[in-house]
């Protein structure tokens, strides 16, 4: 996460000026990342399951850390554009891979807290990105490199070092975990495989074997595509703020160094809220009310930004609006990913479905990369308005998902138990009459 968003910090330290780039060229460098990022997410998640997490995840970390380091020596727009394309290829497997990895270990009512703890690392990365950029930018001139180049070089090297440690510290699956006893391994595996049907009166194990049929089912599942609108309603603001927040704050009249530092309290607060909301969500066994409330906070934040920017002369109010929006974004995101993963049954369908949801959903990053145009500064009214529009559509999607899940659960509650064999229900996955959706 540190590597993905640090281009926003590099920009205000002189990246655009050094490479003689225009505003639209900078936006293209942000946009192309998401094209390759989207394409490679599903293959990466399938490889993760077929290979081993302890091999695959650190390997792709080494790859993108290397690409990030090399971004520090690009000489023009073309070089940066190509580097960003390859960064999307190498980084594609990380978030969907880790999100899926969490579902291999934790049940549906335990997953959001773990997803939030991982995703809050993105928020903390945003905070440290500002602090590190502030400190690293002081290296301007060292080795003949500008300060923004050192941001890419040092953060890329740090990623490679962490990846080398990860090779030896990641456990693969509960079935092979050496720190568990044999009865403990059996207990963990049993509760994971039977979690979807425990409220139906007929215990059915989830399918664990691979069939291309499960991948096709993921690509044609209605809930993933309705969920995408919810995802876009959260991720458009997420990427809009992470990529442009330092620039937005600087355009409010603050210096570059102050703009870097003013991003820190926003991200730290958001990280704490993400974990707190996830804890309450897991305790209640509900996802949609918390997602809906957090998305309302995002909408309120952008309404404040929009009206304050249109009025002009109140940078503190715009900053407050961004603060509120980000504090809604970071709790909502793990909730949205957890909710869809909770309602996909069958290991490989969940693997592919989560990758589609996150991969296609991240095309929102390609869109939001062009929301905040240099020509619209310092007010960025168009950008704030577009973010608000996506949030409104996302709220409608949350309501639609909950209503449909609730209707299907009621319908299945009225169906007779034992209509299909356990093997048939296992094959049907989340479409089986024994499966109950999380609301």
Describe this structure in words.
- The chain is mostly helical.
- The protein is built from 19 helices and no strands.
- Helix 1 (2-12) runs antiparallel to helix 9 (147-166) and helix 7 packs antiparallel against helix 16 (347-361).
- The model has no long low-confidence stretch (mean pLDDT 86).
Would you spell out the secondary-structure blueprint of this structure?
Layout: H1 2-12, H2 15-18, H3 23-39, H4 41-50, H5 53-71, H6 77-91, H7 94-103, H8 111-136, H9 147-166, H10 182-193, H11 212-219, H12 222-251, H13 256-284, H14 288-311, H15 315-342, H16 347-361, H17 363-368, H18 381-413, H19 422-428
Helix pairs in contact: 1-8, 1-9, 1-12, 3-6, 4-16, 5-6, 5-7, 5-9, 7-8, 7-16, 8-13, 8-15, 11-16, 12-13, 12-15, 12-16, 12-18, 13-15, 14-15, 14-18
Biggest pleated sheet: none
Instruction: Determine the number of helices (DSSP H or I, runs of at least 4 residues).
Output: 19
The CA-CA distance between the termini, in Å, is: 29 Å
Topology order in helix (H) and strand (E) letters:
HHHHHHHHHHHHHHHHHHH
The radius of gyration computed from the alpha-carbon positions, rounded to a whole number of angstroms, is 22 Å
Low-pLDDT stretches are none
- Average pLDDT across residues? 86
Structure classification: mainly alpha
Number of strands: 0
Shape, please? globular
């Amino acid at each position: 996460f540190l590597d993905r968003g640090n281009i926003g910090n590099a920009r205000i330290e002189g990246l655009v000026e050094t490479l003689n780039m225009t505003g639209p060229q900078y936006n293209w460098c942000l946009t192309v990342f998401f094209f390759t990022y989207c394409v490679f997410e599903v293959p990466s998640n399938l490889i993760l399951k077929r290979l081993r997490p302890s091999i695959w995840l650190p390997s792709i970390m080494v790859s993108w850390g290397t690409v990030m380091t090399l971004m520090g020596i690009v000489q023009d727009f073309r070089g940066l554009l190509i580097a960003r394309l390859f960064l999307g290829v190498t980084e594609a497997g990380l978030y969907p891979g880790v999100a899926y990895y969490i579902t291999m270990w934790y049940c549906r009512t335990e997953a959001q807290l773990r997803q939030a703890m991982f995703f809050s690392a993105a928020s903390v990365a945003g905070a440290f990105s500002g602090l590190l950029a502030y400190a690293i930018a002081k290296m301007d001139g060292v080795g003949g490199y500008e300060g923004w180049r050192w941001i890419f070089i040092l953060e890329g090297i740090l990623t490679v070092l962490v990846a080398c440690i990860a090779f030896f510290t990641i456990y693969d699956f509960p079935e092979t975990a050496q720190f568990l006893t044999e009865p403990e391994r059996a207990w963990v595996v049993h509760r994971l495989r039977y979690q979807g049907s425990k409220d139906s009166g007929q215990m059915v194990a989830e399918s664990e074997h691979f069939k291309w049929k499960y991948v096709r089912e993921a690509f044609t599942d209605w809930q993933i595509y309705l969920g995408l609108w919810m995802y876009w309603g959260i991720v458009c603001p997420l990427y809009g703020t992470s990529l442009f927040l330092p620039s937005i704050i600087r355009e409010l009249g603050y210096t570059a160094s102050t703009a870097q530092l003013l991003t820190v309290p926003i991200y730290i607060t958001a990280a704490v809220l993400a974990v707190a909301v996830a804890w309450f969500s897991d305790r209640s066994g509900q996802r949609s009310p918390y997602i809906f409330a957090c998305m309302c906070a995002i909408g309120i934040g952008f309404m404040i930004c929009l009206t304050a920017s249109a009025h002009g002369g109140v940078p503190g109010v715009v900053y407050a609006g961004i603060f509120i929006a980000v504090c809604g974004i970071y709790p909502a995101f793990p909730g949205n990913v957890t909710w869809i993963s909770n309602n996909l049954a069958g290991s490989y369908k969940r693997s592919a479905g989560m990758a589609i949801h996150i991969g296609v959903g991240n095309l929102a990053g390609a869109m939001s990369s062009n929301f905040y145009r240099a020509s619209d500064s310092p007010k960025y009214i168009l950008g704030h308005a577009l973010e608000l529009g996506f949030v409104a559509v996302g709220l409608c999607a949350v309501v639609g998902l909950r209503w449909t899940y609730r209707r299907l659960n009621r319908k299945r509650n009225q169906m007779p138990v034992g209509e299909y064999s356990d093997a048939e229900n296992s094959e049907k996955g989340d479409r089986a009459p024994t499966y109950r959706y999380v609301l």
